[in-house]
Write the structure tokens for this entry.
Amino acid sequence: MVRGDAIWIVNADHWPRAYLRAELCERGYDAIGFETLKDALARLALGHDARPALLVLDLHGQVLGDDDRRALSGGGVPILAIVDAAPPAGEPPAPLAGTLHRPLTIGAIADAVDRLPVRRP
């Protein structure tokens, strides 16, 4: 991952989203937070901004519909999925750059972002 590339974070919980954003900014990334996947997908569909290098998607409490899966698959943005300890129902969104299982720390998520070789198209 190249420092300065945009990382989009989707997490319904404010403080974990804010802490991860702060940690990624400290590491030199341009991190943007979204409360819902719909918000992130809407911004992606507008096409005003460059596509993010990575979407960190917290699936805790999220139910992905078929439209969400199609939008994620067709968006061409790699996804780092954060899932609960038990496997999520249904298939994960694609394309997955990786999957992290709870319990984990904000630092562990940021370390996983650092290790990913994805770059902005």
User: Anything to note?
Assistant: The first helix runs from residue 14 to 26. The chain is about 35% helix and 20% strand.
